[in-house]
Design goal:
With 253 residues, this protein is mostly helical. The protein has helices spanning 10-106, 108-116, 137-147, 150-155, 158-161, 168-172, 178-182, 188-251. The model is unreliable at 125-130 and 159-181 (pLDDT under 50).
Length: 253
């Protein structure tokens, strides 16, 4: 049997084992701390993503509300154009009647011609003085669809959206089916954030579709009113020429 060296200390072996065990315990504690940090970071980023989609959804509803207001103003503008066109038509009809009277005054022959000449057709006045103007069907359907979402806009207002970040969202996670639950993380808070993000994205997709229909309806209405403006411009130009001609005839009496 070999002799032990003089510097050998049997108690030093126990100290080494204790230091190794402490090192292993410290490593496990560091790993657990790292895991907790990563979990908190995932939750923080998920919460930030949920808040970001909520703000985007609120801005989308605000854009939709502005689009509906613009559509209503455009419809009122169309009604004003319709009234203006009717007034121009009435002025043109009155001017033709005046020209008939001027011809009767100028000569007996002109009076005989006017007597046998057919009278210009008279336009029927609108009931209650309001013109019948209807916006295009695409715009009306888009406006009705957007107005139905007005309550959701109130719920998604930035000042009210903070209420949706409470623990009530976490309780909603229990309502999903088992199939949907399997597709979400098992952590209750993380699952609630993911559900909220998915719901916001779905609503954003629907909102963008409504905004697209609203924009197409606005474009159609603008094109129709452009045609009305061109028609009205030509009528006004013709009316101006007839007014100058009638004024000249009156001066010659």
């Amino acid at each position: 049997m070999s002799a032990l060296p003089r510097s050998y200390n049997p108690f030093a072996v126990d100290d080494d084992e204790e230091e190794a065990a402490a090192a292993r315990g410290g490593g496990e504690a560091a790993g657990a701390g790292r895991q907790r940090y990563l979990q908190q970071e995932v939750l923080r980023r998920s919460a930030a993503a949920a808040d970001s989609t909520a703000r985007s959804l609120s801005l989308l509803y605000e854009s939709e509300r502005v689009g509906v207001a613009a559509s209503e103003e455009l419809v009122r503008q169309g009604e004003a154009l319709k009234r203006t066109e009717q007034m121009v038509d009435k002025m043109d009809q009155d001017l033709k009647t005046s020209q008939r009277h001027i011809n009767s005054i100028k000569s007996v022959w002109g009076g005989l011609v006017n007597y046998f000449k057919a009278k210009p057709p008279e336009s029927k006045p609108e009931q209650n003085g309001t013109p019948e103007y209807y916006a295009n069907s695409r715009l009306k359907e888009a406006m009705m669809s957007s107005k139905e979402q007005e309550s959701k806009y109130q719920e998604s207002h930035p000042n009210l959206r903070k209420m949706d970040n409470s623990d009530n969202d976490f309780s909603k996670a229990e309502l999903v089916s088992s199939v949907q639950r399997d597709s979400y993380p098992k952590n209750q808070h993380l699952r609630a954030y993911h559900q909220k993000i998915d719901n916001n994205l779905d609503e954003m997709s629907s909102g963008l579709s409504r905004l697209k229909n609203l924009a197409l309806g606005l474009q159609t209405e603008i094109d129709e009113q452009d045609d009305m403006l061109d028609r009205l411009t030509k009528k006004v130009e013709t009316l101006d020429v007839n007014i100058k001609s009638t004024d000249k005839k009156i001066r010659q009496l």
